[in-house]
Amino acid sequence: MTDTNTTFTARLATLTVTDANAESIVITGNNGLALTHVGTALTTLNASAMTGTGASGVTLTVGALTTDSVAQGGTGNDGLNFGNSLAIVTMTGGAGVDTLTGGTVADSITGGEGADVITGSAGNDAIILTETTAAIDKVVFSGAAATNTLTVAANGVDVITGFGSNDTLNLAALGDATANASTVFSNSAATIRTMAVTEVNVLTTDGTAASITTGGTATLAVADYTATTLTNVAAFLTEGYAAAGATTDAGAFVINDANTDLTYVYNFINSTAASSIIAGELALVGTIDNGGTDLIAANIVFV
């Protein structure tokens, strides 16, 4: 029989690897593959030889891996989900529109080319967005907002590099986990601002007194942003912002440090009926190398 069809139509194959001792998986070809690995010993997934595009990518869901692993996507739209992993994952997407999810410890996740969606999950992850295309990447923060709990345990303190001016942060989980949050941007001094319930405040400051608050006296040094106890960050913010006074307040502060190319993301959960912001209500969940372009409201999304 001769196949005269000159147009290739991608098909998705499904495979479950049940061998608990399977350590290395190499995938080639130009068809899509939905792969489930239920063991705990996987150390290598290599789909770099996959030549399909679009839907001809590989999706992978792993079990509770107990050994460190390395995963490489192909040219299609890959979905690599290591959310169940208990060990370190070093993951790299390919040229497609990839969805990459880290595990419970400190992972390294590189999106590669294409408009990728990256969730570090728990652990202090390194997330690398550097690419040569103008694709819009999205980093999704994890949280425990349903219980009004600061998210440092759920998300870790991620370090994000290669963040482009059009890339986005999904901060829904730092609020009430809905798309109803609002974003407010400030880069100059003003009178005290009353925050709405579930609000993300994006601000740019050089840390000097009165840089965000008219008549303010609190200052910020570079070391304050990552201090073990965020006393100085709280004092600086409480001069410029007042919580709505409800213990259900939940949201985030995104602070561009005008002295460096760094942006800091803090979860905020109001713990009292008072409007002031205290150190125990803040948790650093991300540090972003913004390449010299401050984040603005448009960089914050909730879906």
What is the helix/strand order? EEEEEEEEEEEEEHEEEEEHEEEEE
Distance between the termini: 49 Å
* Biggest sheet record: 12 strands, mixed
Approximately how much helix is present in the residues? under 10%
Overview of this protein structure:
- The structure is a single chain.
- Mean pLDDT is 90; it is low at 1-6.
- The radius of gyration is 22 Å and the shape is elongated.
- The chain has two helices and 23 strands.
- The chain has 303 residues and is mostly beta strands.
- The protein has a twelve-stranded mixed beta sheet with strand order 2-4-6-8-10-12-14-22-21-20-18-16, with no helix packed on it.
Ordered list of secondary-structure elements with their pairings:
Blueprint: E1 12-17, E2 24-29, E3 32-37, E4 44-50, E5 58-62, E6 69-72, E7 79-81, E8 89-92, E9 99-101, E10 108-110, E11 117-119, E12 126-128, E13 138-140, H1 152-155, E14 158-161, E15 168-170, E16 182-186, E17 193-194, E18 199-205, H2 231-240, E19 241-242, E20 250-257, E21 262-269, E22 282-289, E23 300-301
Parallel strand pairs: 1-3, 2-4, 3-5, 4-6, 5-7, 6-8, 7-9, 8-10, 9-11, 10-12, 11-13, 12-14, 13-15, 14-22, 15-23, 16-18, 17-19, 18-20
Antiparallel strand pairs: 20-21, 21-22
